[in-house]
UniProtKB/TrEMBL annotation:
This is DUF2157 domain-containing protein. Keywords: Membrane, Transmembrane, Transmembrane helix. The chain crosses the membrane at residues 43-61, 67-88, 108-128, 134-153, 158-174, 186-208, 220-238, 244-261, 273-292, 304-323. InterPro entries: DUF2157. It comes from the Bacteria. It comes from Flavobacterium procerum. Residues 13-158 form the DUF2157 domain.
Length: 332
């Protein structure tokens, strides 16, 4: 990393983007070996929020009979009120561009307040059912609150909660592992189409937000969710026994791969590029298998076996080359 930084500085000097005096000052500063612990402190703050909210959940679970429901809900409401009181007090108000709190701790108070709000509404619905049997509303309400907090306080962590809640509202678990294990795409094709539709809506919202300059830095988060949701839903349906179904989802995956290829360059996002390649590669292999599954390879099976190692090794080499080329293009 140090050699990379030094090389970048030399490159800037050679291109005339910095003066010789600035070049020497940068070298002198780096020779002091000063490093920032900002990321580490934020990580500990994030972990403290997770541990605190997890502790609240464990407290409710283990003492639900002795404490009482009203007392638990009242305690949650007080803590939520305190969190949001300080957040609104020190917030700069809603702005279309990127904003930050003067003190980074307040960002994690927003996160804590939002998570506790989700716990509060979920617990309230479970115990007293204020929404009746409409459990979707119990998901939609904290989702709306999360979107409001994400945009008002400019909080990326809360935005991920909001998108996850939105996906849960349409019947999805957003994490790739849950999508693969918990959702039955085969039994309910409507769920698969809902996943694709949700991904498309996230993409359209990202495009619209860029046009009106609304929290443009949120775009990468929306696109990351859209990429995973669309790609996993499409790949799962490539193994469908219905020819029309897997052809339709093959088309969805192809269009998605092309779009996220362009988006990865637009946003200079290595994560989008890598996952786009992985999903596209998996989908392409399944597609080829479906095309050739009815062919008889009995006469050339030995040749196929010999070529397979070369194919996979070549795929790995090509993947590494593509990633290196992409990194070079976005850093120049």
């Amino acid at each position: 990393m140090k050699k990379f930084s030094e090389h970048s500085t030399v490159t800037l000097f050679e291109k005339g983007l910095i003066t010789e005096n600035q070049f020497e000052e940068i070298k002198s500063y780096r020779s002091l070996n000063i490093f920032s612990v900002n990321a580490e402190l934020k990580l500990f703050l994030y972990l403290s929020v997770l541990l605190f909210t997890s502790g609240i959940g464990i407290l409710i679970y283990e003492n639900i009979d002795s404490i009482g429901h009203i007392a638990i809900l009242s305690l949650l409401l007080v803590v939520i009120a305190v969190c949001f009181f300080y957040c609104f007090k020190y917030a700069k108000g809603f702005q279309k561009g990127e904003t930050t709190f003067e003190h980074p701790v307040l960002e994690y108070l927003v996160l804590a307040g939002n998570i506790l709000t989700c716990i509060f509404i979920g617990y309230l619905q479970f115990q007293y059912k204020p929404f009746g049997e409409h459990y979707g509303l119990a998901t939609l309400v904290p989702t709306v609150v999360s979107f409001f907090c994400a945009y008002y306080f400019d909080n990326r962590s809360v935005l991920t909660i909001a998108i996850t809640g939105l996906a849960a509202y349409v019947g999805l678990s957003v994490t790739p592992q849950d999508l693969l294990k918990n959702n039955d795409f085969y039994a309910s094709q409507s769920l698969s189409f809902s996943a694709v539709l949700l991904g498309v809506l996230l993409i359209l919202w990202t495009i619209y937000s860029r046009r009106i300059s609304l929290k443009i830095h949120f775009g990468l988060i929306f696109l990351t969710f859209a990429l995973h949701i669309i790609s996993i839903a499409a790949i799962n349906n490539l193994t469908s026994h219905d020819v029309l179904t897997w052809m339709v989802f093959a088309f969805f995956l192809m269009v998605s791969t092309y779009y996220f290829y362009k988006a990865s360059y637009e946003y200079h996002a290595m994560s989008l590029y890598v996952f786009m390649i992985l999903y596209g590669y998996i989908g392409a292999n399944i597609f080829l298998f479906r095309i050739f599954e009815n062919l008889d390879f009995s006469d050339i099976w030995e040749l196929v076996i010999l070529l397979l190692p070369a194919y996979f090794i070549g795929s790995i080499v090509m993947f590494i080359k593509l990633v290196k080329d992409f990194h070079k293009e976005i850093t120049e």
